[in-house]
Amino acid sequence: MKVIAVVGMGGVGKSTIARKIFEDHKANNVFHSHAWIPISLFNAGEPSGFRSLLRSLISRLFRDGGEKVDEDLNNMMDDQLTEIVRDYLENKKYLIVLDDMQSPISWDKIRSAFPNGLSGRNIIVTTSIHSVAELCQRNNPGGGHIQHLEPLPPDDSLSLFCHHAFGSDTCPPNLEQHSRMIVQRCGGLPLAIKSVGNLVAKKKPKSATQWARVLETLNSEMESQGHLGLVQSALTASYNNLPNHLKPCFLCFSIFPRVKASRLIRIWIAEGFVEMKRGVSLEETAKEYLDELIDRSLIQVMDKDFLGRCKSCCVNGFMHEVIKNKSKEENFAILYDIQQMERRTSHMVLDKIRRLAIQKSNPSEIGSKSSSSHLRSLILELGKPSFGGQKQPTITNLRIRVSQFKLLRVLDLEGTFIDFLPFEFTSSHILLKYLSLRNTKLVKLPQSLKKLQNLETLDLRGTFIIKIPREITKLKRLRHLFVPHPPYENLSSTKDDLFIRWFTHSDYRGVELPTGIVRLQALWDLSLVDAFDASVVKEQGELTQLRKLGIRRLTREGCTELCAVMEKMSSLISITLLSMSRNEPLLLGDLNSPPLLLERLFLAGPLEYLPVWFSSLSHLNKLVLVGSGLQDDPFTILQKLPNLVVLFLVDAYGGSILQANTGNFKKLKHLHISNSIQLRRLVVQKGAMRELESLSIWFCAELEQVPLGIGNITGLKELHLLGMPKGFIDSLRKDRVHGHPDIAHIQRVKCSFRSEGEWNNEVF
């Protein structure tokens, strides 16, 4: 028995493809028996539902074969019904489609009804849940295949739309902009694109006003038009099938069509959407929620971190329309934009709404309507002032009366162009848990911050705040404190300072913490702060519950103090340490017992040698060394770290040879080596770095050739060389053209080099 699982979001065309295969094979008499079972109509996880499913399967098989169904079928139990299916299909070739399977329990139960052994026995499963597809394929001795269906890319979507709207695969030039706007709303779903294309063909809009009307009425057409209604029904069913605890989490995408995962997770927690589990942090549970929404094909991953975890995600355009409507129905949230029809929302609806997101809206309009006493979340994304003469609205002229929002849990001003807060916090804001001022122009925090006694997240990254007020020490529940970093992005990226810039930031004043920070015993994240003297380091060392710590401008005395206190900080999983300057060493050799759970380590400053405790970092998955000045081959120690995935060596090694030995660097996927000006040879023995996917070598002028043994790294996808000698590049280009076995397997070779004063990129 072979199982083919077709997986993708609702409306992407899974059932359409399965139906075409089913009908074609049925017409050609390839199989003895055929049956199409809409699994979602039966609650197969329950005994009665599974029994009904088996009865339906038997009835369809018997009718397909022209045989009479046993009249006593309704009185039979599961074992009897299963036996009937097995007996009937024995010695037969069959094609059975199990459409819209939503639970792994359904597969575990039904698979036992199908006889195995002969060729020509095929089951097609359609599902929107990736884990169900994997289960169907994995737990099947006859083998199988998973077919992932993704929404169409923009250009293919436009071609499909034009074919149905204009009878051509190309769009009339004067209508392309309007067509792309309509296609974007369809989210790459073929059935939706076809339906809207047919709708446009009937209405034949000509003027800009008529095209705007088509966009405006798309939501109502979703309900009234047949095929569009089918797409909406499929997506609505995906929402309805969610467990109750995931529904409010998913509805947040009505105001965040695209969002960073970390931001979303903290908002979920602040809202109270994440259930407490014994022995598991709220953050870990929230990540499980996010993974389940991804698994169900409800949201798409836009960007991943080096471990393959979601960094940012989005919701499909058509699905966004569906959940916006659902969100309004339930008074969950509203996205307010002057360019959309939210302007017509009544006072009555706004009075009931619990979450409000404002994007570039009309100041006077929002100012008069945003007086809801039920508001739990307020998210402003007003952007920067425009340079075209029309002034962008700011929080000042929006007249947002924050003092009235007594139930407010989330206040998110990320990216809003403000240089001060035009309101004060009061005791009525006792429920506020999440405050983001990220990427604003704020220069200081108000003293009224101390009123936020339940605040858990304070995000100040990207602001101009250089001193944290003493009042923050009163926020006993503060869990995440993100302070501004130096403006690295303002530094140039020439050969001379591309990586030295990690030290030139010492010219910038960092963030100064107040005395008494030790009172914040709930704090998890504290990064990146200045060590003005050793006493600052000592006080931070009393925060033994910290998971993320970042300190810059470390001196010898600060390092000594840090080694003494870090042994008590057993919960740390991420450490970032930067020395005062390129000449100030990071003296970390006195650390006897490093945090054993450490996963990420960033060290910028002279080390001279790798401390002995490096070999005990069994959980470390990312290591960045900058300006270390190592003379002994660091691979000797680092290659034995069992979970290392990412390794950056930036001006870190002054020797001539780096060698990875057989069987080592077992999980390394990304390796970057730069500014090793004495490096002549990089050797990768057979069996080393088997998982390596990307290799970057920058500004290593003495390197004689591509790494010896690179041909053994069969999974290498990209080799990036920057600032290498011309002779090196010419030789590599020649080898690439002639298919040299050492580099022929690499999917992409990119060389960046200077020519006549300009940087050029060449991809072989």
TrEMBL record:
Membrane-spanning residues: none
InterPro entries given in the database record: Apaf_helical (IPR042197), Disease_R_plants (IPR044974), LRR_dom_sf (IPR032675), LRR_R13L4/SHOC2-like (IPR055414), NB-ARC (IPR002182), P-loop_NTPase (IPR027417), WH-like_DNA-bd_sf (IPR036388), WHD_DRP (IPR058922)
Domain Disease resistance R13L4/SHOC-2-like LRR: 400-720
Pfam families on file: LRR_14 (PF23598), NB-ARC (PF00931), WHD_DRP (PF23559)
Keywords on record: Plant defense, Repeat
GO biological process, one term: plant-type hypersensitive response
Classification via SUPFAM superfamilies: L domain-like (SSF52058), P-loop containing nucleoside triphosphate hydrolases (SSF52540)
Statement: the UniProt record of this protein carries the keyword Cytoplasm: no
Tree of life domain: Eukaryota
Keyword Membrane: no
Residue ranges annotated for the Disease resistance protein winged helix domain, each copy included: 259-323
One GO MF term: ADP binding
Domain annotation NB-ARC: ranges: 2-168
Coiled coil, from the record: none
PANTHER family, per database record: DISEASE RESISTANCE PROTEIN RP, DISEASE RESISTANCE PROTEIN RPM1
Protein name: Nbs-lrr resistance protein
